[in-house]
Amino acid sequence: MNDEKTSSELNAEIEQLKDTIRKLEAQIRQMDQSSEKDIEHRLALTINNIPLAILNTDRHGYITAANPAFLKIFDIQASELIDKQNIQFFEPFQNTELQHKITQLIENQLDFDIELPFSSARKDAFFRCRGLGIKSRISNALSFLIIIGDVSKRKITEHELIKALQKAEESDKLKTAFLASMSHEIRTPMNHIIGFTEFMKDLSLPSYEREEYAGIIFDSGQLLLRLIDDIIDIAKIESGQMQLHISVFSLNEVLYSVFKAFNEMRGRRGKEHIVFTIQMPEVASTVFMKSDAVRLQQLFYNLLDNAFKFTDEGQVNMGYTIENNAINFFVEDSGTGIPPNQQEHIFKRFRQLDYGPTKKYGGTGLGLAIVKGLIDLLDGHVEVSSESGRGTRFQFSLPGLILQANSRPSAPMVVTPKTNWSAYTILVVEDERTNYNLIMIMLRPSQANILWAMNGKEAVAMMEKHKEIIDLVLMDIRLPLMNGYDATRAVKKINPAVPVIAQTAYAMDVEIQTAMEAGCDGYITKPIERNLLLETIAAHLPPKA
């Protein structure tokens, strides 16, 4: 019996085996396709629920899918995109680096990862964009995936950090320059004061030279005082401690006092050749304003100081106009002018047009910052118009009430060198002998009788002893044993009618207010100006029968 199969039987078995293999391959292929579809379905669900904008294209770049985040960012409907729009010609991407990268992705399969803004999106929008080529392991089909993420917040933060760093570096440079300038501005007048004071000790010095040196010392002292006042004022403005003292005053008189002071100053500065004028409407003599007269004067002082500093030839004008019951003040000059790119910075503290060691003009860069701070405090508005080489005009308005009257209020008592106060006794409370000597010399021409107390307790004791003859008290605030505040309260208990004038180096509004609350009737700040001292005393001395 032959066990070997015939050739036909073997062929039949082989065919049967091949058929089985084909069926198995078909089943495996079907299973792979089903698995891939399931994966694609799960992936689609994931993509549709993440905030990144994602779209898919075929091998030619036609969009086959776009998730809701993409549609929302570019404000477009799926029906306008799917199978209709080629990503290479998508309008928001036109003429951008992204369009170029997408073209390279589709044509050369070059993946990319870039960051850029979209002009069609919101103004501050910035996006990170990635492009990937994807191949199917089943069909070897090629498609492309574009992923877009909004990185605007990070970019804004980076931008703000860079700006903050630049601002800090600029601020550091400004402060360094300010300190160098401040050192120069302080040491220069101090050099004059110390140097010419040394010369004044020479007894053989001719009287005309002595007078000249005394004038230099006085002007240098005034310069130092203005510098200190500027530093204190900018500190008070920035800390919110600057207080206003609102009153009704004659606008004409206030501005004429400023004009007179600067008209006299021209000669001392070597600016007598500059034409200086004041312009006011004809009705100015009957115009009164309700505002802070002292701060208004300070505004004009700072603006005029700036105008004369930068004007070497031509003219400086000051004044005001009245339009629609509103006052517009101005200071204008024919000086060097301010370049347009510098005008937005001039009201910032420490700012000057030049800050190098070769700078032509002095100053600390605080004057115009104080002007802006005071005008803001008074609820006003300031503007500047200028051109390089053609002068500058500062104009500001204040909301003070304008009053008009047929007559002016009575003028305060005018003190002259012939004033005779021999019938009055003034108690000077001052612990520093030099300060007392200065006050005594200032009062000597008035022939007033002067008593001296060196501390608060001694002042109270002298008041109790001489309460019948003491007509006025000049009270220092910083005193040993008993301070000026407590001494004033004690003096007022002994004689409530006696006027007490605080004379103090404390110039902050809060200290002045404390003195007034303690019972002081007035105050003057050190360094004391003789005319102001005499005028203040005259305003408070009781009449003699």
Question: Overview of this structure, please?
Answer:
With 545 residues, the chain is α/β, with parallel strands linked by helices. Helices cover 45% and strands 19% of the residues. The protein contains 14 helices and 18 strands. The chain has helices at 7-47, 68-73, 78-81, 97-108, 152-200, 207-239, 251-268, 293-309, 367-377, 433-443, 456-465, 484-494, 509-518, 530-540, and strands at residues 53-57, 63-66, 112-116, 127-135, 142-150, 247-250, 275-279, 287-291, 315-323, 326-333, 381-386, 392-397, 401-404, 425-429, 449-453, 472-475, 500-504, 522-525. The strands form four sheets. A five-stranded antiparallel β-sheet has the order 2-1-5-4-3. Strand 1 and strand 2 (63-66) form a beta hairpin. Helix 5 (152-200) runs antiparallel to helix 6 (207-239). It is elongated, with a radius of gyration of 43 Å. The N and C termini lie far apart (170 Å).
Topology:
Elements: H1 7-47, E1 53-57, E2 63-66, H2 68-73, H3 78-81, H4 97-108, E3 112-116, E4 127-135, E5 142-150, H5 152-200, H6 207-239, E6 247-250, H7 251-268, E7 275-279, E8 287-291, H8 293-309, E9 315-323, E10 326-333, H9 367-377, E11 381-386, E12 392-397, E13 401-404, E14 425-429, H10 433-443, E15 449-453, H11 456-465, E16 472-475, H12 484-494, E17 500-504, H13 509-518, E18 522-525, H14 530-540
Parallel strand pairs: 7-9, 14-15, 14-16, 16-17, 17-18
Antiparallel strand pairs: 1-2, 1-5, 3-4, 4-5, 6-8, 8-13, 9-10, 10-12, 11-12
Helix pairs in contact: 5-6, 6-9, 7-8, 8-9, 11-12
